[in-house]
Specification:
The structure is a single chain. With 482 residues, the chain is an alpha/beta fold. The protein has a domain of 332 residues: TIM Barrel (Alpha-Beta Barrel). Helices cover 51% and strands 11% of the residues. It contains 21 helices and eleven strands. The strands form two sheets. It has an eight-stranded parallel β-barrel, surrounded by six helices. The protein has a two-stranded antiparallel sheet with strand order 1-2. The longest helix is centred in the middle third of the chain and has 22 residues. It is globular and about 65 Å long. The two termini are 33 Å apart.
């Protein structure tokens, strides 16, 4: 499947697509979806040179525009939620750590089946590193999956937990903020038109008032929002999210939400009188990222405070015009909990670990593959094996990092294996769309999302592809991903 040159790549798809006046025009949609897109995306991720990877990414983005598949901001829909014109469902946001093309295909397939329009693909700052998926790669995989499944319309790709590292911030605030600004710039250039800024790590509960506790959170959040606005493409308003409570820590309160929003809005005006602010706010109501593993490797049940979640969503909408509150770390909740998110008027829910666990625990994942991943985890992350942890607990806490270490091997598993795994994932996505009442709502997207078509630049795609995706040992981190 790997080609040797960019010329060979474009020649291989010439039976169904042509380069015409600097753009890819698809002449045979069925043939393009059947084989050409698979060839392009494989080389976009695993091509031997930046030129091959970049050319493949450019071809996918260009063909996507011709087919009506493009990266977009969900801002217009969330503004409509804030006005009360759209309601009744919760938008799922899904982090994909491995088997990325196949997981995305399963999600698109379930969305098409359910007539769903708003759903988000996301990846956290920490996940970008340990899954070996830079933004330029991740976004184009989502577009390719949409093309493969026959999707037509906007594709919402989101930077999740673009988070301040509190230790690094205390040591050198300017350097830490500058690093986040660079990541935001990179993500926007890739098509991440939805950015969740997470400065909640800066909340200081030792301060005497709630406002002062939130001060660093909202001041740095406003500065990063202003940077987003300075970098967003002309004619497009990026959807930006804020966060008031670090997931896994103390539960958030309405008072904290009000303090954060009042301070944030005042701080944002200092960067520009007419700057657009956030469209949603993430809160903590009892979850933890990835769940809490017990000694036998199972996950402890968590009780969410849905009443407080509902109150914060209502306050966010009625007082500040936001879409509502966002819930992180929800994918490991019991199935019977998900219908409560739309009931609590939650605007967005973040899901990740549950799908990762499905792949690891599936009888359809080859045993040898699972054993290899576990062996690599013990080899590469033995320094994270804490005293008193059972092997099952260690594996559960670190196995999110296993996907990057066998990235290409997972991608190239036999098709019959991937078909079975996609079927399992699609069934779960189908369940979630229904429980979140996110069905037959594509007309809302059609009505409130203004298409902005951004022509890809081949030179920029090649430049952004000049990063090796080859697996290597990953240092320990302190991730905050769902």
């Amino acid at each position: 499947m790997k080609v040797q040159t960019e010329k060979e790549l474009l020649a291989a798809i010439s039976n169904c697509a042509k380069v015409d006046n600097g753009a890819v025009k698809v002449s045979d949609r069925a043939a393009f979806r059947e084989k050409a897109i698979d060839l392009l995306i494989y080389n976009a991720v695993f091509g031997q040179t930046p030129a091959i990877r970049g050319t493949a990414r450019w071809a996918i983005k260009s063909a996507g525009l011709d087919l009506g598949v493009y990266c977009a901001s969900i801002e217009g829909l969330y503004e409509a939620m804030g006005r009360g014109e759209v309601k009744g469902y919760t938008v799922p946001a899904v982090n994909i750590r491995g088997m990325t093309y196949d997981v995305a295909r399963a999600l698109f397939h379930a969305a098409i089946k359910n007539g769903s329009g708003p759903f988000i693909f996301e990846i956290a700052k920490s996940e970008i590193d340990y899954t070996f998926q830079r933004p330029a790669e991740y976004a184009v995989v989502m577009l390719a999956a949409g093309i493969k499944e026959g999707w037509s319309g906007p594709v919402f790709v989101q930077g999740d937990h673009f988070q301040v590292n509190v230790k690094k911030f205390k040591a050198d605030p300017a350097k830490e903020i500058e690093g986040l600004k660079k990541l935001i710039t990179e993500a926007l250039a890739a098509g991440f038109y939805n950015i969740d800024i997470d400065t909640s790590t800066l909340v200081d509960l030792s301060k005497p008032t709630i406002y002062e506790q939130q001060r660093a959170n909202f001041e740095v959040g406003a500065e990063l929002t202003a940077h987003v606005r300075s970098q967003e493409p002309a004619g497009l308003t990026v959807s930006v999210g804020g966060e008031i409570g670090e997931v896994g820590e103390k539960n958030s309160t309405v008072e904290e939400l009000v303090a954060y929003m009042d301070g944030y809005n005042a701080s944002l005006k200092k960067h520009g009188a007419n700057l657009k602010g956030i469209s949603k706010v993430s809160v903590q109501t009892g979850t933890s990222h990835g769940g809490i593993p017990l000694p036998d490797g199972t996950v402890a049940q968590v009780k969410l405070d849905f009443d407080t979640l509902e109150k914060m969503s209502k306050t966010a909408r009625e007082k500040y015009g936001l879409s509502g509150a966002v819930q992180h770390g929800a994918s490991t909740l019991p199935d019977e909990a998900f219908h409560r998110f739309p009931e609590a008027t939650t605007s967005e829910v973040h899901l990740a670990t549950g799908f990762q666990n499905m792949i690891y625990d599936s009888p359809n994942l080859p045993k040898a593959m699972r054993e290899k991943m576990y062996s690599l985890l013990k080899e590469n992350f033995k320094d994270e094996w804490k005293s008193g942890q059972t092997e099952e607990q260690f594996i559960y806490k670190t196995r999110k990092k296993g996907f990057g270490l066998v990235k290409e091997e997972l991608w190239t598993m036999p098709e019959e294996t991937k078909v079975k795994l996609r079927g399992e994932l699609e069934a779960k996505f189908d369940f979630l769309f229904k429980k979140l009442r996110c069905v037959n709502n594509k007309p809302d997207v059609d009505k409130h999302i203004k298409p902005v078509f951004i022509k890809p630049d081949m030179g920029r795609e090649i430049a952004s592809a000049d990063v090796s995706g080859a697996p290597k040992p990953v240092v320990s981190d302190n991730p905050n991903a769902d």
